[in-house]
Amino acid sequence: MPITLGISCFYHDAAAALVRDGEIIAAAQEERFTRRKYDPSFPSNSILYCLEEGAVPVSKLDTIVFYDKPALTFDRLVNSYLDTAPKGLKSWLTSMPRWMSQKLLIPELIRERIDYKGPILFVPHHLAHAASAFYPSPFDDAAILTIDGVGEWTTASYGVGEGAEVKILKEMHFPDSLGLLYSAFTYFAGFKVNSGEYKLMGLAPYGEPKYLNLIKEKIARIRDDGTVSLNLEYFGFLDRLEMTSPRFNELFGGSRRMPESRITRREMDLAASIQAFAEESMLKMANWVHKETGKRNLCLSGGVALNCVGNGRILREGPFEDLWIQPAAGDAGGALGAALAVEFGYHGVERTNSNGSDRQNGSYLGPGFSEQEVEAFLEVRDYPFKRLGMDERAITVANALAEGHIVGFFSGRMEYGPRALGARSILGDPRRDDTQKIMNLKIKYRESFRPFAPAVISDKVSVYFEIEHRSPYMLLVAPVQKSRCLPRNSIPENDDLLPVVSQKRSDIPAVTHYDYSARIQTVHRETNPLFYDVIKRFEELTGYAVVVNTSFNVRGEPIVCTPEDAYRCFSRTEMDYLYLEGFWLDKRQQPKLRETTDWREEFELD
Amino acid sequence: MTRASTVLRSEVLRVTLRIVYFILVALKGLQRIADRVRAITLIVSLSVVYILIITPMTLSRRNNPKRRLSSWMDNSESGWHANVQSTKDDATFSDSRSPSDELAQLREGYGNSALAVYSILKPLRWLARPPEEKELSTDLYVMF
């Protein structure tokens, strides 16, 4: 019964995952413990948690595996500098100290930090992504497609998964990268690279793809096989400390939008254009992979697989019968993929038949807290609370939602991956016109245009949305049923999005995006029974089997991990109630928040 | 007599504490200076390597058709490239050998430049420190 610890760190969103005999025991991102969003540092806290959860001492680990081959990445870096010198000195001076002190010394660092003496392995970056997509999937046989910014020399890859084997067949090479192209536009639109991509995706429906032809003509081409080719004259990431070059600015009529400044028509149209480009590339890649592999099912991973609009199009318009996407599709998921690759490949663990359901356990793989622990926390702090009996829980939450209140919902083990799936969520009523505005501006403190996702009971999904597929990880976008949609106004001349956002576009306006789409989470009793029951009760009260589900955090803050994090976030925002693992807290009864500094400055805006 | 010795003892203690405090402050100052010297030495060394070694290497291979980073209209490097890697193949999982062993095994496009650069940088390793927290929040990860 081999035990493997997977680690990803030093690039973006560090994480650790523990796998025993092929079964995922625990997985968590470091940011949840350090409270620094996308924390890339060595995941000491995540490792400690994983080992505790599995009751595994370090000495019992059979293998530790890192999700990347640093030597290959170093090779890519050196060759990039050898292509751009004498330009690139500033970038060289910034990157090399990291490599000399950290990234080329990973085995030494691991041994030193956790006192480990066993073997340390390295898995190619995209093979780790591919393994994270295939092994937990419900398929015994599938094609695999991974697309991200860059990992070593690779920016996308495809292959097959058969039984316990994952095999990469072909890959696309740096600097040609769909992920980097999307990130460059994210940067130019004034959002943060590596975290703002989903904002750009959310902004796209407000614009028109006016720049699509210009992009294809000057910046990037898409081949029939879906691969892209970048014109490096428009990018700065090779020799500057910027994603785009001055030529990029010239092409789009001026410099990038400054973060937090007003979003104009240009950003909306750029977002729509690059989103259309990305969807076309993703769809063509899927078609190509289907043609090359002949498989009926597709597994997706890599940061670009978080583009749920593109995923939705692959499902609806692509050649595959079924699709499964790793919920931690970005770098954090590499820790899990690397561990699974070693378990099934290196250690030869047999992969048993899945009987149709996936092996990700709803992605509830992080820390959980017992009712005793929560009660002790509340009593020590003297916070007023009400204990709820088992049969009171769902109805209490559902009642509050039906009355239009916003509820913080903390239940069970924390999610692994960027989405809150009903373990660390903020819930609201999707029928109300003002829910999106209130949640964005008074609770999340984020941009008003950003849409919220619906969590819908699995067997009722097609009642509200034009989809029948499972989407338990909120990674598919589908249209709202036409019969539910209402006419909408166009965006005013002054580009003010607020009146447009506030406009009722369907009978579930809080989860209906400007283009009548929704990023859907189907909720299943077998993975989260309480959350399922809450929505079921809400349906009994209102006739709607849908609630608004957004992550339990404010802008720039990692999703809450502990009851203390949850209470802090609850008390700082205008949430009305907090459900905390069997306990019910009413905001009106809570002591007034006493903080000497403005907590909004605690988190760097993402 | 007793009072005099008490006064003397407290005076000795006061002077000792002052000396210790002074030494600690001086050590901290020296450490800060040493750290500054280390950081400057590192920057100067890396700049010298970049200007005197990397740049000439770049110029000498600028016209090499086997450059890894192809130009925009060069179709030979774009598209899908075969690179079969399987989880059933133990060679896929490299173990924790030294970086130079790993680098020595890399594909040789036009000479193993990465190994050469690594060999040059290795003696400077003691000058480098992991990045501080604020540095890690940078937008640009591609080249880092």
Report the sheet with the most strands of chain A, covering strand number, pairing sense and barrel closure. Answer: 9 strands, mixed
Instruction: Note the gap between the termini of chain A.
Output: 42 Å
Q: At the first level of CATH, what is the class of the domain at 371-482 and 495-601 in chain A?
A: Alpha Beta
Number of helices of chain A: 20
Radius of gyration of chain B: 28 Å
The number of E-state strands of chain A comes to: 21
Structural class of chain A: alpha/beta
Mean pLDDT of chain B: 82
Shape of chain A: globular
The CATH homologous superfamily of the domain at 371-482 and 495-601 in chain A is termed: Carbamoyltransferase, C-terminal domain
* Residue share in helix of chain A: 25-40%
Point out poorly predicted stretches of chain B. none
* Strand numbers in spatial order across the main sheet of chain A: 13-21-20-14-15-19-16-18-17
The major β-sheet of chain B equals: none
Concise summary:
The complex is a heterodimer of chains A (606) and B (144). Chain A is of the alpha/beta class and 606 residues long.
